[in-house]
Amino acid sequence: MAPSPRVPVRPDDERLARTRVKFLTSEAFEADQVREAILASWWRSKEFRVPADHIDVPYVAAQDLDTPLIRAAAPVLERLGDQLEGQPISLILTDQTGVVLTQRTGDSDLRRHLESVELVPGFSYGERFVGTNGIGTALEDGRPTHVFGHEHYAENLENLACAGVPIQHPISGRTIGAVDLTCWRKDAGGLLVALARTTAEQIRQALLTHSNLRELVLFQAYLQTCRRTTGVVLAFNDDVVMMNDSARQLLGPADQSVLLGRAAQELAQARRATATVSLSSGGKVKLYCRRVQGHREDDTAGGVLSAKLLDADDERAGVQLPMPPMFLPGVVGSAPLWLRCANDIDAGCGRGDWLALAGEPGTGRTTLARGVHLRRNPTGRLHTLDATHAGPGWEEDVRRELLDDPVDTLVIRHADRLAAADLDTLATVLGEVRTRDGAGAPWVTITLDPESESRPELAGLLRLFPRTVTVPPLRRHAEDLSELVPLLLSRLAHGGHLTCSPAALHLLMRADWPGNTAQLYRVLKQVAKRRRTGSIQPSDLPAEYHTITRRPLNRFETVERDAIVRGLEDADGNKARAAKLLGISRATIYRKIHEYGIVIPDR
């Protein structure tokens, strides 16, 4: 008998159940036995060590239930709930992280079951906590998702079917939540997915009535600008920022902030403005911005700006494509911000320009200079002088490297830490080199701390360096840790083979890294002393890397945080068991996990 047309998306339960067991036990299975989106979610769930045999989700006690999302969704869900009264279907609304905000269920048996698996208000059904499910996977993938029966990662959910759809704000386009319809697996059908899509769209439309008029006017101005140009476009006011794909691809977060700040400054003085702006990455853009009039004559809806990246050599207007990857010996990284910096240094070296490399300690200023030298002149000599250790023989050292027995490249680290007399000496010697050798002089770079260029005593020295390139801090290109961590581990393995698991790398990428790459190296060196081969797991990392830092902790809070992290590790991530080991209540450990931003350790 042909399957019923009412359930076209329902999988083969028996076959799928066998495939799921094989996946969980690391047995071989045919990939076409499970949908591609579900298999990808299973792998993510496995990487985060989501328990497959029980439900253990975090509880968020303090929720704001007076939000535009809830106000817009309430009448939509109420109307649908009235139509489905008595039916075994649950209507669920969540925030953008998967925390359940409201739940309405028309069947008492289904309601009791959902309570038993904590699919109730206050608990998070994010994929990293529950694994594959309609809510978390829809939010993770950013698209409508249905998960039926054994497609769920956790076995406690395998008798359910759910269809989740992300809800995008109609003006900003940001995902602000999700709507999910859940029923018993045996009752699932294609109509569940269609109904979830329709409900999400109705909520999105209802959000328009809860958006203030300023946002609507600004949105219209943003769309008009996007239609006129394919370049960078941003729109902003005190409450919202919108940007097109070009802005996301060509500009890092720091550069976006620079443009928005400059545009706000210009528009505070005039209705329209044009300016050339230097970006944090070292590039420049031509900025065109205009003020957007609000609904009333005396009201301003915000501002819209468009920008064109300028050529680094002659600053002629023209859209610049993202920097292509380039090979620098000993240097890794492919984030746009990092590549732009590396290309700027390489181009400066190619022209023979002496460069000042500004940036926070540990960002890799000297490493970049060395990599460019090896790329341009692999057989040449490179020497480094550290101005921090400048003493009585400082002038002789500089003269030897540049005049007596000149090297091909000289890197002078921490030049801004020189005393005034030593700065004058350095400027004098460099001036002699330029006069004597001209374009054939050695390539010289100096490294500076941020903001030091404004110091008056450095003016004489900096006149010899036509350009400053800012090296971005690690937190601005954290995606490069996927390349940087393996490189550093290869230097620390001492003959062994040491790798980093995806779960541990995920924790490292969430850290702030105030000490930049130098701090990362110290952390990995500390880990490598305990684990010399194999794969680094989250439990190998120091406790502070299991948290998302929200504020500085005092000594007592640090001890408490570390104790909770270790307790969770000892309990294999089970919060109830960890609370018992620590002698605190389950409610307390949930609250502390949220307060300290602790990421549940994986085993």
TrEMBL record:
Signal peptide extent: none
Keyword Lipid metabolism part of the UniProt annotation: no
Start and end residues of each Sigma-54 factor interaction domain: 461-529
Keywords: ATP-binding, DNA-binding, Nucleotide-binding, Transcription, Transcription regulation
Membrane-spanning segments: none
SUPFAM superfamilies the UniProt entry points to: Homeodomain-like, P-loop containing nucleoside triphosphate hydrolases
Protein name: GAF domain-containing protein
Presence of the UniProt keyword Transcription in the record: yes
